[in-house]
From TrEMBL:
GO molecular function, a single term: phosphoglycolate phosphatase activity
GO CC terms, sorted: cytosol
PANTHER family associated with the record: PHOSPHOGLYCOLATE PHOSPHATASE (PTHR43434)
A GO BP annotation: DNA repair
Domain of life: Bacteria
Annotated protein name in UniProt: Phosphatase
Matches recorded under Pfam families: HAD_2 (PF13419)
Length: 209
């Protein structure tokens, strides 16, 4: 089987760092920390996106969204390389190769994703990678998946999109392939009806399909 992997919240547990960066950015913009709900920030990022989080909190606190994003980006850039992989994800990647499959990366993140893969010696698991630097439309638009399918001779019926948000599930379905939702904290309430849902990679490794 060929697997197209999302990155943030799927391979690397980046959300704690992203949430902390967002909280720090709000504080820098004069928001009292007792008014900041870090759980809700994480929830909005997980269920929707960073962009949605920026829009929501800029409106809620009546602050400039672009400035909030600028400060957030600075904090995130400083901390993102401290992110760690999810338990057993390396075993899942290797098992897929051992079974004759290939792994592909599809992320909205740029160079930092590649740097983290190199840091943990994960680059070796991937046949091809797409990051934001290739300027494809964002998921759930299927263009980037269709590109991977065409340029790597992937059989759609033997391919699955694996990610942690509904937009990953929808992107896979929009491209005509199956989808797997990785939901380690059971936060996703609107799933998009993936063919498979997991909350840890031990279960993924030992699945029957």
């Amino acid at each position: 089987m060929d697997i197209i992997w999302d990155f943030d919240g799927t391979i690397m547990d980046t959300y704690p760092i992203m949430t902390e960066a967002f909280v720090n950015a709000l504080v820098d913009m004069g928001i009292d920390d007792i008014e900041i709900d870090d759980y809700d920030i994480n929830l909005v990022m997980r269920r929707h996106s960073l962009g949605t989080c920026l829009q929501k909190y800029a409106a809620h606190f009546n602050i400039d969204k672009d400035k909030l994003q600028e400060i957030y980006n600075s904090y995130e850039n400083d901390g993102i390389l401290q992110a760690t992989p999810f338990l057993n994800v390396d075993k899942a990647l290797q098992q897929n190769i051992n079974n004759g499959g290939r792994n592909f990366l599809l992320t909205h993140r740029g160079q930092s994703a590649l740097s983290l893969l190199d840091k943990y010696d994960f680059s070796k698991y991937f046949t091809d990678k797409i990051t934001k630097d290739q300027d494809f439309p964002r998921k759930p638009d299927p263009t980037s998946i269709s590109y991977l399918i065409k340029n790597n001779n992937i059989s759609p019926e033997k391919c699955i999109m694996l990610g942690d948000r509904r937009l990953d599930v929808d992107a896979g379905h929009n491209a005509g392939i199956k989808s797997c939702l990785f939901d380690p904290d059971s936060m996703i309430n609107s799933t998009g009806d993936p063919e498979l849902t997991i909350n840890n990679y031990y279960d993924f490794i030992h699945r029957n399909d």
